[in-house]
Amino acid sequence: MLERLFVKNIGLIDELEINFECGLNIFTGETGAGKSMILNSINFLCGKKIDKIFIRKNCDSAIIEGCFYLENDNEKNFLMQMGFDIDADNLVIISRQYSACKTTNRLNGRSITVGMLREISQQLVEFHGQNENQKLFDPHKHLEILDKFCGHEIITLKENLTAQIKKLNSNKKIIADLLGQDDLENKIMLIEFQVNEIFNANLIQDEEEKLRARYKILTNAKNIYEKTAQIYDLLYDGEFSARDTISRANQLAIEQPFAENLNSILINLEEMKSDVADNLATYEQILQNSAQEMLDIETRLDFIYELKSKYKKNVNEIIEYGDVLAEQLQNLKLGGEKIAQIEKDIAQTENEIYLSCEKISELRKKFAKMICQELEKTFAELSMPDAKIKIDFTQKDFDSNGFDNVKFLIATNLGEDFKPIDKISSGGEISRIMLAMETVFAKYNNISTIIFDEIDSGVSGKVAQMVAEKLSVVSKNHQLICITHLSQIAAMADTHFLIQKISTNNSTNTTINKLDTQELITELARILSGKKITETVLKTASEMKNEATKFKRRKS
């Protein structure tokens, strides 16, 4: 879950820190106070592009930092598989710094790409905003939504399918090259030259990075050697060396109570001498050979740069490309015999692809049935007792997603025909459908933190109360962060934050405060009645909070 968020120089935010809690975290405030910018900041933290337009006026940089507590093994295992060490506190700190149109991303101090950031964030946070509604309205996105429910199993199946399609396309290209080659001899000569050039280069994995790291060590060797020599001189060889000084002090302190301590220091110094001397000798040896080695490294890096420029690939990709070319060369030389074998491989691969597509489709249909049942149950809890949903499957030519086309169809009232979700006109129904989907998705994918923006769009009265109660129930197993304008939802908060816009000295700043009991009742009263807060409204707000507390106790 998200424990802490630090934001600096985003929108109207000068600098603020939010300490989130478990359960339902609610944000309220006047329109334009900066509520959406808080959620935008979390979105930026999760990998959304930071545009200069979001940076606070007259500022050149911005910082967003989030501290996440890893609540389950899925989150920890995922990060460890990506090569990150997780400490005993199970905490992960993600930070993004925007400066001079450049964004730096870090996880626990280690630089990461924005792609890695997005992949990691998907395991920690599920964000529901207007984009999710748009996905629901777009039938082309329905397959993506369904696959989210299917979890890691479908990811593995699709990765296997992608590899099979890649193999199929590679074999088809080989066949095309063999059958349509008018200048086969010239092509063989060209590929042979490239294969020899790459293999004679004797490239090794990550060679460029290793050479640059070694070059840096060599350039620093002199400085390290001189410092080590100074240390050795101060400890052992100097006119007033530490060893001689402590030795004399030790002789004078024979009858003193601290004599034993001095003697221990002297012994430690002697034991350390060989380590310091070895280190000094190591760097002395490095210095003796460094000039030629640095020249060799520079020559090798120049050669690698020429290869990278020629092939438009990095070292690892050039090595892989060399293997591909070698196989292609062999195929071209084998000619007709190879064609027959490859055609046989193509037929086998196509069969394997079809079987993979069937497995993916079966998994989707299995989850689709379970999901529809759970969604209809959730609809009933959200005052849509007669709503029915089904996922319609049709078949298309296969691609990396399989051969399924899917479409979510819904009938919101008894006796109605099923129709596409985008034909629903009620904003309240859309909000409840999305809440139901996020609720069921959270159960299937074990996401710790769910963020809702405008989940209360188009709902009020009894329906708003049911949405509030559903959010409260979901928050027992997931951390929820929610912006709302509804008193019913705000009353259910386990933690309530008030966002305000304050203008002073020709400057406007967004502030955030965690409300105590009396403050949140006042805020509920403001939501209920606007600026004029009477004793009657305060009493209503207090009763509303009490009823919400009773509901949460019954469900705990």
Explain what this protein looks like in three dimensions:
With 556 residues, the chain is of the alpha/beta class. Helices cover 59% and strands 19% of the residues. The chain contains 16 helices and 15 strands. The chain has helices at 35-45, 73-81, 114-124, 130-137, 142-179, 184-200, 207-237, 242-252, 259-311, 315-334, 336-381, 427-445, 461-474, 487-491, 517-529, 535-555; strands at residues 2-10, 13-19, 24-28, 61-69, 91-99, 102-107, 110-111, 125-128, 388-399, 402-411, 419-420, 449-453, 479-483, 495-504, 507-514. The strands form 3 sheets. The protein has a 6-stranded antiparallel beta sheet, with helices on one face. The radius of gyration is 33 Å and the shape is flat. The two termini are 20 Å apart.
How far apart, in Å, are the first and last alpha carbons? 20 Å
Q: Let me know the number of strands.
A: 15
User: How confident is the prediction overall: mean pLDDT?
Assistant: 85
How would a textbook summarize the main sheet?
6 strands, antiparallel
- Unreliable residue stretches: none
Overall geometry comes to flat
Strand order of the largest sheet: 2-1-4-5-6-7
In terms of topology, how is this protein built?
Layout (H helix, E strand, L loop, with lengths): L1 E9 L2 E7 L4 E5 L6 H11 L15 E9 L3 H9 L9 E9 L2 E6 L2 E2 L2 H11 E4 L1 H8 L4 H38 L4 H17 L6 H31 L4 H11 L6 H53 L3 H20 L1 H46 L6 E12 L2 E10 L7 E2 L6 H19 L3 E5 L7 H14 L4 E5 L3 H5 L3 E10 L2 E8 L2 H13 L5 H21 L1
Parallel strand pairs: 3-13, 3-14, 8-12, 12-13
Antiparallel strand pairs: 1-2, 1-4, 4-5, 5-6, 6-7, 9-10, 10-11, 14-15
Helix pairs in contact: 5-11, 5-12, 6-10, 7-9, 8-9, 11-12, 12-13, 15-16
